[in-house]
């Protein structure tokens, strides 16, 4: 099989890219994300149609946030789009005339990193994506593991604090409430409110108030050594690393790959994550340690991974 | 391949059984467990030798507590025996002249249940064993998943309470401190000490003191409706079920199998575990629910599973 | 000193009552609560003026939610009214021509119960009020203990769960997030969503959805034996009782008084609170146990207490 | 009243000191602590007798670990001595012919600091003692507050982590498991085991193993900048400061005094405690903040405080 198309459905834009067997994106078409479910389906088809014009493509892979069924055909539930049991595969196949594979977007990104990024050469890899929330994917024995019903690898919602913070999922104490971009901002706001004298740089980057602090301010302030910003990253890393240690107890992979916007800060966040991971790894003195690697594909991982999953059929 | 031998290394005795392709144990030989590492190796060989006398067997599978390497040959670390990087496969093969597979005992038990017990017909199964501690095994795509280095499925040591109870592993807040036979006894003792007037049956079964309460007393008292004993099982079930919900978020199996001595109480403990599982299952209204099943093989699971793994090679 | 006036500032109405030395309310005047800070001050003066028309009164006591300074004159901060360093005592004194004492409303209610309700005869009493939130007051050596700066007894905001639920105060894991009317509703909604089949009565009392459940539904359903409602009260009681055990370690009072809307359910909630209190009381076998008593004055406690504090001067 | 004697019962020695009205110790007599309950009573009387030889003294104050009744006469329960309902006051009075006051040792130390140390000039003071465990005392309105039954101020046993570490008291998650000398050593050992390469100084001070680390090693290593030692103090300070914030919500004192062996490190530990206190203080922007002060009397506080309590009668 030659070229395939990967589709990434974002909150502001939908991107369809033509991808070759080496994971290279030959060209990309983007459209603004419509506000209605049907509009989004239309937009996906339009983007795919445009991408397919200049190339001969064999299949389409779509990465979608939410639960995707075990047939990789239906979006059972999407958190941000009003899709409930949406037969996305059938709808798009009918319109674009190509075989379609639908995949959870974090799974697609994990596959992208495994095939063409930080995971190359590993057979057993766990990817986590520290974006606004926390997602991820599981590769065991060179295969993406989706679970019996398609909804495995919902890492963000394992409970790490009993009776902990409320989560959008309805539960409490979910990992993504403590290790995600949203958590990072909360840490920074709480600390800046409590000790503003240690948050001069951070507060200066926003509107001067704790509430005005955004994720990009925390990153920029941390690079400049702002104590509150650095401490906020460290807190996030404590939770991220402890969670990876749990995943090591469960999956024992040879590598973890950490992606998502938060990981763009590189060693600023990966160093503390590795330290926390070692701190909490059970049996650390007896077992080989999994590597904790930075993702390499950035926000292309999902599109490239979806395209490759479509190629694999 | 025809008959194989499975070996189960217990704290008081070592059992070697001849097992056929259907998982039936044809005969079993047991010896008392010696106190020295070398003595245990000797005893394993002796038990295997006895078992092999009356049958033609093709291979031997040994289930051992602890970390077993990815080649299923070496016990890297055992919690109860002073084995460190013990080349058990080589030693036993040289002595008994049969191919040997070494496997973590909880993995072996999981495989036994998957092949011949409650897991028959499922492709993706997670087993947990509620014994003194909490162990388990992972079957995905009809294969036992051991991790890259052989030490996956250490369920008992995922952290469910930050800054929680000290665990023998050196960490804190491990699941097995809250969901295991040992936890059950702790719950019962604490409650009996605080409200002895609600623990009349329970205290009457032991020596009358909270410290004298043993696991079997809790089971017997719960069957007689002792409020403290029933409440102790319920507390254990709260933690067990919540942990299964986490495992569902991660693995999305079609079934969980709950084994180990605690599960011998059947619905007394499985009912509350199922209830807690549903309570904490993320996305419960959107996804198919994994079944929570009682193990069927009892304490034969490890021996039968080890024998079958040896058959598979 | 003879008669005094007590003022209770509620969310919907402001009540001023003429109270005698025995704590009896002779008459009450109420006005709707205005929406502006100045309007509320006006309304307080009006209500006091009306109450003072038919009786000779010597002083006025005002119970206000929020921080009241150590001079009992200024509302430093109020959570529901836009008062910041509001000199309420001076303003009202000037307008009504009577000596005024301002007191935190939960402190006033605690004093009321201590003087004329469940606390009569005790020298050392801790009151907690389980209303929408959780407040309380401290009586040691027959005196209300307000702290050096007037802001003691903020029971609702001690941290009972590290990294726990967000609280309106900006912190996390505050006791009132786990033991209050608001917590009760959250427990009921979560449980009804997870196991609707056990919440038939409860859901039937509202609009049929978990989100439609209100506090009064939980109370009514619990009285009818609805499992989810009963379990929700039990969960609240677990946290309330454990917190009382902490307060016993700190204050060692002879009695706890439990008031507020939640306590209107009587033994339905007090029984489980007592049980949890005993469960967590440190050194229970060695020490005399504080009584856990139901408040007796209902929502009159604050008004009566404020009037009496004014009498004491 | 002129001179009085204060008695401090330690694990290795019993000290009796003659103390004047200014809190100055004129002379001290010590004897080795006997191993039997009666032997200890004998030793107390002997030490008091010796101390009374050269001075005219009016009364004796004895500080004892454990629960002391509201009459300050009987040791209800002692954790380290086999005293149960021991009538210590009567026994010693009969033997030494002087009025005796028995007081909990942490209460006595708190009183000493309030009268002659860091608490001078404050009316409302909370003292915490970070020794092997965590104790303390409450002064409100210039009086020591002992609770109705004599067992108030058991700060070490408020629950700060639900389902947390087991405590010697039989409960779980007690504050002293997270903020005490014992906790400090645990933090250091855990961290040194996980990241020995960051604990070179610390490990070098002991026998080279994590288990060999003692409290004095952590202090010495922290002063030399050992990362693990510094981090261990910071962890202790996080819990200590958060607990002080809770005590501020409850008691609202003008000052906290931090004593005990851990506080000997001065700003190394007090600085982080203050930072954590501010981080968790509720309503920090609206209220006056209590000072967090270092104790001044060191291990003399208990003896001096007991002597002064005897003087007050």
Automatic annotation (TrEMBL), chains A, B, C, D:
The organism's place on the tree of life at top rank: Bacteria
CDD domains: ASKHA_NBD_ROK_SgGLK-like
Entry's EC annotation: 2.7.1.2
Entry keyword set: ATP-binding, Kinase, Nucleotide-binding, Transferase
Family affiliation: Belongs to the ROK (NagC/XylR) family.
Annotated protein name in UniProt: Glucokinase
Species per Swiss-Prot/TrEMBL record: Streptomyces yaizuensis
